[in-house]
Design brief:
The complex is a heterodimer of chains A (484) and B (444). Chain A folds into three domains: 5-52, no CATH class; 84-339, 3-Layer(aba) Sandwich (Aspartate Aminotransferase, domain 2); 344-470, Aspartate Aminotransferase, domain 1. Chain A is built from 15 helices and twelve strands. In chain A, the strands form three sheets. Chain A has a seven-stranded mixed beta sheet with strand order 1-7-6-5-4-2-3, with helices on both faces. Chain A has helices at residues 27-30, 48-59, 83-88, 91-94, 106-123, 135-152, 170-178, 195-201, 224-232, 327-363, 384-390, 394-403, 431-450, 452-457, 469-474, and strands at residues 127-129, 160-164, 181-185, 206-212, 237-242, 261-264, 284-286, 298-302, 305-309, 379-382, 410-411, 420-423. Chain A has 484 residues and is of the alpha/beta class. In chain B, the strands form five sheets. A seven-stranded mixed beta sheet of chain B has the order 2-10-9-8-7-3-4, with helices on both faces. In chain B, helix 5 (107-124) packs parallel to helix 11 and helix 6 (136-151) packs across helix 7. With 444 residues, chain B is an alpha/beta fold. Chain B folds into two domains: 69-81 and 346-443, Aspartate Aminotransferase, domain 1, CATH 3.90.1150; 83-340, Aspartate Aminotransferase, domain 2 (3-Layer(aba) Sandwich). Classes of the chains: A alpha/beta (484), B alpha/beta (444). Chains A and B meet through helix 2, helix 3, helix 4, helix 5 and helix 6 of A and helix 1, helix 2, helix 3, helix 4 and helix 5 of B.
Chain lengths: 484, 444
C-alpha cells in the first residue's frame, strides 16, 4: 500500500500560499488567549505536486464505472454522463449561498421547481420534496410523514410498521429512528409478499407498510392492489422504497397503483455519481392528502417568480437538512431527465430489464436461481450449488470476479436467499459487455469444480490481496498516529 | 438513444436468447391495468447542446457570490478552495465508485477516508471519527442519539445560540424516540451559564455547545465543560467550525466527549447549501455506539497494509432495526474534497486562513460600528469570523438597498439585527466598499 499522506509530510513545505495579509492584527489583540489552541493541528505539509501524486496513486486502486461493469444489485451503477459535471460546476450554481435574496436565485429555483414537477409526473405523485439528501433520509422523511398524518388524525394507537423480510436494512432502521415497532413479513414461495400472512399482521395498530417494488429479488409485487386495500382499510399508509425505480420509468406510476409515499434515489435511477459512498439525494413524493406534512420549504411559483415557501410549516414535519438538500446532485438529475424526456426514460427501464433478463438467461445454466421467472431490472443468483459441490462460497466467487476486471454483485443480500448474488447490470451496459461478464461468471463456475483452491486464494491480481476485515475490528485502527 | 448501447439488432439477439418475441413478455408480471398507457408527460428531450443552452439561461438568472460582494455566512461559508481540489474530486476513479464494500478494489477510497478520519481527529483532538454524516445539523442530532445510547438519559440541553435550522433538524431526528430537548437561554449572545447550572441535574444526558455559535460568538467552553461534567454521566457535545480549530481550542482541550460540525468550509463550494457534510468524532470508548461508516487499517492475506470498513455490526445492513443509525449513503466525495483541501493548505495554510478570517472580521466590526446608529449587538462577546450588528433601520431594508450595488449585506437575525460574515477571501477594498455603502443606506 502507498504511504499515508502524513508520511509524505516534510516540515515547512507548502501546497498553497494565501495573499499577504492587508490587516495584520495579532490574534491576542482580537481573541483572548484562553480561547487559543494549545497545540498545533499537525496537518501534513506538502507541495501541490506531492498531494496530486498521492491522491492519483490512490485513485489507481479503485474500481469505477468507466473502468468496467459494476453489477451491484439495487445500487444501479449506471454510467454517469459527463455533461452533468461540466454544467453543474458553473459558478452561478457552485457559488450560490442559501441565504441570498430569492431574486438572485431565480434560475436555481426554477430548476428545482421543474424537478419537483418532473419527479411528481414520473412517480404519479401529487407533490415532491427535494430536501432529503440520501435514500435513507428519504425513508426517514416518509416515515415522519406517516407519523405526522396519524398524529393529525388522532391515530395515537398506531405503533407498528410492517416490512417484508427481503427489505433493505435501512427500512427497519428508519422505522426504529422514528419510534415505530417493526413487524417482519415473510415472503411467500414465489418471493413476493405473503398476502394471507399480511392480513394476519395488519390491525388497528398498523401505521404503515414499507415495500420495495420491484422487490430485492427483482420481482414486481403483483398484488399491490390487494395490499393497498388491506392497509388502507385500517387507515395505514403504504410507502414505496424507490431503490429499484430504474425498472419502472414510464411503465408504472407508483402513485396511481396504491402507494401513498415514495422516495427516489437520484444517485441510482437518475444517474448522479455515487462518489465512493455519497453524496446522493433522496427526494420524496406523496399523494395529495400528505402534502401538508412535507418538509419546509417547498419551491413555489407565483406571478412574481419562484420562491421558497414555508406556508405549511405548522403542519410540516419540519426540516431534515440545514438548507434545501443536495442542490448539486439535484442539478445533475434535472439535466439527466431533461435530456431523456418521456420516451428516453421508458427506454432506460426497458433496456435495464432486457439486460438483466439476458444475463439471467445465460447464467441460469451455471448458477442456481431460486426465482427464475422473468425478472425486472435485477435478479438474484446464488452460490449454493458451488458451496455444496465445491466448497466454494459466494464470497470466493465475488473475489474471483475482481480478478477478472469486474466488480462483484451485491452478495449475501437479500438475506432470504442463502449465498445470494444480486446482479443488476443496468441499461448502460452493451451486449458485448454483458457477454464478457457472463463469460467471466461461466469461467468461474468451471474453476469452482476444477480448481476450487484458486477461488479460495482470490483475488490475486488486485492492488491488495484478500483483506482481513476481522482484524480491522479486533485491532481497531481508525486513525494514523502522527509522529512529530 | 442517449446512454443506451443496445441497438435494435442487439435487442433481437437478446430476445432470442431469453426466448421472447417482444418486450412486453418480460413485464407480464405487471398487471395490465397498472401499466401506463399513454406515456409520461414530459418536456421534449433535449440534446447536449440544447440542455447547455437551457442551463445557461438559468445560471444567468442567478447572481453568484463571486459576482457580488457577499457577507453571507450563517453555516455556509465562502472560503478559498485551491484549484487542485476539484481535479482530484473529479477523477472518475473516486467520483463514480460505489461505497467501498469490496475492499480489494476500493483501497483508494478506503485510504482517503482513513486519512480524512485522521485529520478530523487531529483538528478536534478526538480518537475516532466516522466517514461523514449528511450535514452539521444531522451530525448534532446523531450525537445526541449516541449520548442516549451511551448513558440511557434521554434529556438533552441545546443552547439558544444554536443555529435555528439545526434546531429544526435535531427536533425532527430526536422527537420520535422520546428525547426531551430543552433550550438553555442566552445572555449577551452566549449561553447563560447560570441558567445552564440550574437546568443541569442527573437526568440530563447531553449538552450541546456550539462555538463559535450561531451569532459568531465564542462560548466559554471550559466553563460549560466544567458544569456539564459536574454531572457524572452527562456528555458534552461540541459543534465547531473546522477552520476555527487551526487557531482556537481543540475540543479535547476543554474535554468535549463528542465533536461534530459542518464541514463544507473545508474545500467544498457552497452550492446553495448542498451538498454539505457533517464530521463526527469522539473517544474510543464510544466507538461501538457511533453512527455511520468507519474505515480501519488492517492487513491483507500476505500481511501487507490494507484498509477496510470496520465495526460494521453497528450498521443498518447488518443490525437492521437495532442499528445505531439508519444512515447508508453519506457525503463521501465532500470529505475527499476536505482531505485534499487540508493536505494542500497544510498546518500553516489552515492557520493563515483562520487568522485572516478573524483579522478581516475584526477590522470590519471595528470600522462598521463607527457609522452612526450601528453598534455591536453583543459588545461583550468574543467572536471569530462572524458577528451581529444593531442597525438603525430594519435589517431587511439594508439588504434590499445594498442589493442594487451588488452587495449581499448579511443575514437578518431580528428586525434591527444583521449578521455579517467574512473569510480570508474578502479584500480590504471589498470591506471598505461595504462600509461606505452601509454608511449611505443607513443615513439616507
Amino acid at each position: 500500500m502507498p504511504k499515508t499522506i502524513f508520511e509524505h509530510s516534510s516540515p515547512g513545505r507548502r501546497g498553497i500560499r494565501l495573499p499577504t495579509p492587508e490587516i495584520d492584527t495579532p490574534l491576542s489583540d482580537m481573541i483572548p488567549s484562553k480561547y487559543h489552541r494549545q497545540s498545533i493541528a499537525r496537518l501534513p505539509e506538502l507541495s501541490e505536486m506531492d498531494v496530486m501524486r498521492h491522491y492519483i496513486k490512490l485513485s489507481h486502486m479503485n474500481h469505477f464505472i468507466e473502468k468496467g461493469l459494476y453489477p451491484l444489485g439495487s445500487c444501479t451503477m449506471k454510467y454517469n454522463p459527463k455533461i452533468h459535471e461540466l454544467l453543474v460546476r458553473h459558478s452561478c450554481f457552485a457559488n450560490l449561498h442559501p441565504y441570498q435574496p430569492e431574486s438572485t436565485l431565480q434560475g436555481a429555483l426554477e430548476l428545482l421547481y421543474e424537478l419537483q414537477r418532473d419527479l411528481a409526473e414520473i412517480s404519479g405523485m401529487a407533490q415532491v420534496t427535494l430536501q432529503p439528501v440520501a435514500g435513507a433520509q428519504g425513508e426517514f422523511t416518509g416515515i415522519k410523514i406517516i407519523d405526522a398524518y396519524h398524529k393529525a388524525k388522532g391515530n395515537t394507537h398506531k405503533t407498528k410498521i410492517i416490512i417484508p423480510d427481503s427489505a433493505h436494512g435501512t427500512n427497519p432502521a428508519t422505522c426504529n429512528l422514528v419510534g415505530y415497532d417493526v413487524v417482519e413479513l415473510k415472503s411467500n414461495s414465489e418471493g413476493r409478499c405473503d398476502i394471507a400472512r399480511l392480513r394476519e399482521l395488519v390491525d388497528e395498530n398498523t401505521a404503515g407498510f414499507m415495500l420495495t417494488n420491484p422487490n430485492t429479488l427483482g420481482l414486481f409485487e403483483t398484488q399491490i392492489e390487494e395490499i393497498a386495500e388491506i392497509l388502507h382499510s385500517v387507515d395505514a399508509l403504504i410507502y414505496m422504497d424507490g431503490a429499484n425505480l430504474n425498472a419502472l420509468l414510464g411503465i408504472v406510476l407508483p402513485g396511481k397503483i396504491g402507494f401513498d409515499i415514495i422516495h427516489f434515489n437520484l444517485h441510482k435511477t437518475f444517474s448522479t455519481p455515487h462518489g465512493g459512498g455519497g453524496p446522493g439525494a433522496g427526494p420524496v413524493g406523496v399523494v395529495e392528502k400528505l402534502i401538508p406534512y412535507l418538509p419546509v420549504p417547498m419551491v413555489a411559483k407565483t406571478d412574481k417568480g419562484y420562491h421558497l415557501d414555508y406556508s405549511h410549516e405548522p403542519t410540516s414535519i419540519g426540516k431534515v437538512h440545514t438548507f434545501y438538500g443536495n442542490f448539486a446532485v439535484l442539478v445533475r438529475a434535472y439535466i439527466y431527465i431533461k435530456m431523456l424526456g418521456a420516451e428516453g426514460l421508458r427506454r432506460i427501464s426497458e433496456n435495464a430489464i432486457i439486460n438483466a433478463n439476458y444475463l439471467m438467461a445465460i447464467l441460469k445454466d451455471y448458477y442456481h436461481i431460486q426465482h427464475s421467472e422473468y425478472c425486472m431490472h435485477e435478479f438474484v443468483a446464488d452460490g449454493t450449488k458451488q458451496k455444496k459441490e465445491n466448497k466454494v462460497s459466494t464470497l470466493d466467487i465475488a473475489k474471483r470476479l475482481l480478478d477478472k476486471g469486474f466488480h462483484a454483485p451485491t452478495v449475501y443480500f437479500p438475506l432470504i436467499i442463502p449465498e445470494a448474488m444480486m446482479i443488476e447490470p443496468t441499461e448502460t451496459e452493451s451486449l458485448e459487455s454483458l457477454d464478457a461478464f457472463a463469460q467471466a461468471m461461466i469461467e468461474i463456475a468451471q474453476e469452482c469444480s476444477e480448481n476450487p483452491e484458486l477461488l479460495h486464494e482470490a483475488p490475486i491480481s488486485t492492488p491488495v490481496r484478500r483483506v482481513d476485515d476481522v482484524r480491522a475490528v479486533k485491532e481497531l485502527d481508525p486513525i494514523f498516529k502522527i509522529q512529530d | 438513444m442517449p446512454y443506451i448501447s443496445n441497438t435494435d439488432r442487439d435487442r433481437r439477439e437478446m430476445f432470442a436468447k431469453i426466448g421472447i418475441e417482444n418486450f412486453d413478455e418480460l413485464i407480464q408480471a405487471i398487471p395490465e391495468k397498472f401499466r401506463l398507457k399513454d406515456g409520461l408527460k414530459m418536456d421534449k428531450a433535449l440534446s447536449e447542446l440544447e440542455i447547455t443552452q437551457k442551463i445557461k439561461s438559468q445560471t444567468c438568472q442567478n447572481l453568484c457570490t463571486q459576482n457580488a460582494n457577499s457577507f453571507l455566512g450563517a453555516g455556509v461559508y465562502d472560503h478559498f478552495i485551491p484549484a487542485a481540489v476539484d481535479f482530484i474530486v473529479s477523477r472518475p476513479e473516486f467520483f463514480t465508485a460505489y461505497t467501498p464494500y469490496q475492499a480489494e478494489v476500493s483501497q483508494g477510497t478506503l485510504q482517503f477516508i482513513y486519512e480524512y478520519q485522521s485529520m478530523i481527529c487531529e483538528l478536534t483532538g478526538m480518537e475516532i471519527a466516522n466517514a461523514s454524516m449528511y450535514d452539521g445539523a444531522s451530525a448534532v442530532a446523531e450525537a445526541i442519539l449516541m449520548a442516549v445510547r451511551k448513558n440511557r438519559l434521554n434529556k438533552a440541553l441545546l443552547p439558544g445560540s444554536l443555529h435555528p435550522e439545526f434546531f429544526k433538524v435535531i427536533k425532527a431526528y430526536t422527537e420520535g424516540v422520546g428525547v426531551e430537548l430543552l433550550q438553555v437561554p442566552c445572555r449577551d449572545g452566549v449561553m447563560d451559564l447560570d441558567k445552564l447550572a440550574e437546568m443541569l441535574d442527573d437526568s440530563v444526558g447531553s449538552v450541546v455547545l456550539q462555538t463559535p455559535n450561531f451569532f459568531g460568538n465564542l462560548e466559554d467552553s471550559h466553563k460549560v465543560s466544567e458544569l456539564v461534567h459536574s454531572q457524572a454521566k452527562c456528555l458534552l457535545i461540541a459543534c465547531v467550525d473546522p477552520i476555527s480549530l487551526a487557531i482556537l481550542n481543540a475540543p479535547s482541550e476543554y474535554n468535549a466527549d463528542i465533536v461534530v460540525g459542518e464541514g463544507q468550509a473545508l474545500g467544498n463550494s457552497m452550492y446553495m447549501g448542498g451538498p454539505l457534510f457533517g464530521f463526527f468524532a469522539t473517544k474510543l470508548d464510544m466507538s461501538r455506539q457511533m453512527p455511520g461508516r468507519i474505515v480501519g487499517g488492517t492487513l491483507d492475506k500476505t500481511g501487507a497494509r490494507a484498509y477496510a470498513l470496520t465495526l460494521q455490526a453497528r450498521e443498518q445492513h447488518i443490525r437492521r432495526a437495532k442499528a445505531t443509525s439508519n444512515i447508508c449513503s453519506n457525503q463521501s466525495l465532500c470529505t475527499l474534497a476536505a482531505t485534499v483541501y487540508m493536505s494542500l493548505m497544510g498546518r500553516e495554510g489552515l492557520r493563515e486562513a483562520a487568522l485572516m478570517s478573524t483579522q478581516h472580521a475584526h477590522y470590519l466590526a471595528a470600522e462598521i460600528t463607527k457609522i452612526k446608529g450601528i453598534q455591536m449587538r453583543y459588545p461583550d462577546a468574543d467572536f471569530f469570523k462572524e458577528f451581529v450588528i444593531k442597525t438603525p433601520i430594519p435589517a431587511d431594508k439594508i439588504i434590499d438597498k445594498m442589493l442594487p450595488r451588488g452587495i449581499y449585506a448579511g443575514v437578518v437575525v431580528a428586525e434591527n439585527e444583521l449578521m455579517v460574515a467574512v473569510t480570508e477571501k474578502k479584500t480590504k477594498a471589498a470591506m471598505d466598499e461595504y462600509i461606505a455603502a452601509m454608511q449611505e443606506v443607513t443615513n439616507a
